[in-house]
Structure formats: C-alpha cells, structure tokens
Amino acid sequence: MDKRTVYIISGPTAVGKSLIAYYLAKRVNGEIVNCDSVQLYKYMDIGSAKPDEREMAAVKHHLYSIADPRENMTVAAYQKLAIETINDLLSRGRTPIVCGGTGLYLNSILYDMDFGATAESDERRVELERLCEERGSEYMYQYLEALDPDAASRIHPNNARKIVRAIEAFEYGRGIRDLSECPLNPDYDFKFFALNMEREWLYDRINRRVSRLISDGLVDEVNGLLEQGYDPDLPSMKGIGYKEIIGFLNGEYDLFDAKELIMKNTRHYAKRQITWLKRYDFVNWINIEKGETVGEIVDRILEISQSTSVPNN
Prior knowledge:
By secondary structure, the protein is α/β, with parallel strands linked by helices. The chain has helices at 17-27, 53-58, 75-91, 103-110, 118-135, 137-147, 149-152, 160-172, 199-216, 218-227, 242-249, 255-277, 294-305, and strands at residues 4-10, 30-34, 61-62, 95-99, 188-197, 284-288. It has a six-stranded parallel sheet with strand order 3-2-4-1-5-6, sandwiched between helices.
C-alpha cells in the first residue's frame, strides 16, 4: 500500500499556524486535525485561541471542543482519536492537515507508539496519584530515578504531575526517552513543517494576542468555568491564560498583573515549543518574513512538499 500524505503544521504559539493550515487546506482538498491540548476542550474557546467560526465553517475542523474540561485527555487517548480521524479523511480522499504545537501529541502521530490498554493505565494513574499524595513528590521522584534515570534527569523533583506521567509512560513499556529508538509511523508520508519568525516579532504578536484575548472576554470565560463547578486544580484549568485569570479572580493580583503574567508565560512556552521542534531533524522550518503574504507562505510549503518527506527509519 502506498503511504498517504499527511501535512503537519506546527510552531510556537501565536506564529499563525491555524491561518496557514486553513489556507493550505483550501489548496490541497484538506481538512484540519487539531493537535493542541487545550483546544480539545469545550467551553475553553477564547483562552485557547481556537480558529474562528468563519474558518471552521469554510474548512472542516476536527478534534476541537470534543472533551469536557474534567476529562484527562492523555496522549494515548489523543493518539487514538487523531489516527482514527486521519484514516477517515484519507479514506474519503481528503488531505489531513495536523495543526498544533503540543509536542507529546505530535510524537503520538509521528511515531509508531503503542500505549497499551487505556483502562488499565487509567487505574494505574489514579493509584500513582494517590501514592504521590500519601508519600510526596520526593518519594515518587526517587522511584522514577530507579525506573528511568534518563526521564528523571529532565523533570524537576517537585513537579508531581510530570513525575507521575513519566512513571506511567515507563510502565507502558516505552518510557519518555530518546525517540530515535522509536520507529516513525510507517503508514503515512508526512509533510512536516514548523513555522517560525524573528523572536521580537513573535513576542510582539504574543503580547498583542493576549491583549486581544482579554478584550474578547477571557475573564468572563474563566469565571463561567468556575461557576459551572470546574475545579481550578484540573489539568485543563492549569493552561496558560486560565491559571493566571484564576489568580486574578481569587484576588492574588490585579488584571494588569494577570495580563503581564500571561504574556510572560506564553513567551516562555513559545521558547519551549521551538526547542522541542528543534529535536526533529526531519522538520522543514518555514521562517516567516515581515510583509510576506499567507499565499506566499503556502506556496513555499507546497514547493518544499514536492521534494521532501519524513524519512522512515
């Protein structure tokens, strides 16, 4: 069976991924598959900067607003949904365009990863979280060090959630380790692109977008989630934009400081996303220049697509 083309449009937050994916979809008979961990959730539209209704009406978008914020959308759960969606699109003669910047979700599509039985893993996660509450993060970190020293070296000893996730990943049999040991998904011909731009320009776009989210009603959105009974400690409510506004609503600081915090945390997140993407030696970087039109950027992507694919290993 010939491998089938799947586009991936990634890059740091606020670089313009959704818009580029939208116009690319119109050129290649495509539909868009979300690869952003917060855009999966219902009721979290403003803070996650979901594509607008006009774009979603003109080009079919998948895996947006599909989960309740109380759900723990694991990488395994995302992988199952994404692969099913990609295969359905291909079976209908459509071109999947995976769009987003959540690194672990990208890995679950790019690599042939087997996460095992999700029911069993859910039970184990609850057990590990309970053990962490009883014994503390230091105890769990020492346990992770014994299981997977390489993963432990990349996680702060106080980051209980990541420690639990790493132990769980190790027990799946794969571990969070160098993905050079993990084969690329052999079913698809990936056209993998990472968008980027000059840092100060990107940071200015981030700052302006945060201001727009505030003016568009982010405070009301977060307040509405709290009024619906969503716990501030839910993983979904820890997303950038949501946790800072919760602090403001709790009286920890004023709205100006909340806005500055969101800007700072978003800039740091963008930097981490770029670092993550640099790990892939097969990604095609598209450095966007000031004055360049969306059409010109899509032209570049299509031109590069003619001659490059992600190599199988």
